[in-house]
Write a structure and sequence with these properties.
Layout lengths: L17 E5 L6 E6 L9 H12 L4 H8 L3 H14 L7 H5 L1 H4 E2 L10 H11 L4 E5 L5 E7 L5 E3 L10 H13 L3 E3 L19 H8 L13 H10 L3 E4 L2 E4 L1 H7 L1
Antiparallel strand pairs: 1-2, 3-5, 4-5, 5-6, 7-9, 8-9
Helix pairs in contact: 7-8
């Protein structure tokens, strides 16, 4: 019967290494010094927390509900785990590149669409950056890209996927669909024109109109961040699987 590996010496509490490995199938045995994985030195509770974090796909809110812990308690637990693994937390600037990719202010130009005006106005009031909630509850950093052509997000490292043209196209397809459009499932590898990524979905429309993706091809899937941005800007509502036009914004268009 298999047992959990013992990683610490029960006598002196030093880290153990494996000196003998054997195969249950052919009885092969290997002798030597085989260091254990650094994760083996974590406690059962700590490994369980990491497994739960992966199942929750990094969603702290879901993890809080499963474990019945506060945000601060979970943050402290993960800080201790990082210390044991000799890992340093990644700073927001390192994730998003805010130091050289985001500016504090962009002027609102006469030719800007109502969508761009709304987003620029909100970010200008917040020094060019904001932390916005995604549909599942975790936060996403956004800000002005230094090019002036759109936004930068900590969740979308690929350039040119949050330009003003992309955001305008997202709202355009929602309006064309009568005020409600499917987000699309480009991230799952769906091909443009399929039921999972129809050309009149948010991601499908953007892929085809802005990036020139053709029917039958796969596309990049930034829809989850685009929907969150439009919801934060009170342009659309970010709903499960769909983006719906906000009635207050609809009145401004009319």
């Amino acid at each position: 019967m298999s047992k959990s590996i013992v990683a610490q010496c029960p006598r002196c509490n030093e880290e153990l290494i494996a000196s003998n490995l054997s195969c249950n199938s052919c009885d092969l045995e290997l002798n030597g010094d085989f260091p254990l994985s650094k994760f083996d030195y974590l406690s059962i509770e700590e490994r369980d927390l990491i497994e739960s974090f992966l199942r929750a796909q990094g969603n702290f809110k879901a993890l809080q509900n499963e474990k019945g812990m506060s945000y601060q308690t979970l943050k402290k637990r993960f800080h201790n785990i990082l210390d044991k693994l000799n890992l340093s937390p990644i700073k927001r600037e390192e994730i998003s590149g805010t130091a050289d990719k985001i500016v504090n202010y962009l002027p609102i130009n006469e030719g800007d669409s109502l969508v761009v005006r709304r987003i620029k106005g909100k970010l200008n009031k917040n020094s060019g950056r904001a932390s916005i909630p995604l549909y599942r509850g975790d936060l996403c950093d956004i800000g002005f890209d230094s090019s002036g052509n759109g936004l930068f997000s900590s969740k979308i490292p690929v350039p040119n996927h949050l330009t003003w043209k992309v955001l305008d196209a997202a709202v355009e397809v929602v309006i064309k669909n009568g005020g409600k459009a499917m987000k699309g499932m480009a991230r799952s590898g769906a091909k443009l024109g399929s039921s999972e990524l129809p050309i009149d979905s948010v991601e499908g429309y953007i892929a085809h109109k802005v990036h020139g993706i053709q029917i039958g091809e796969t596309a990049f899937g930034p829809g989850f961040v685009i929907a969150a941005i439009l919801d934060w800007a009170e342009i659309c509502r970010n709903e499960r699987g769909y983006v719906t036009l906000n009635h207050t914004f609809l009145k401004e268009i009319e």
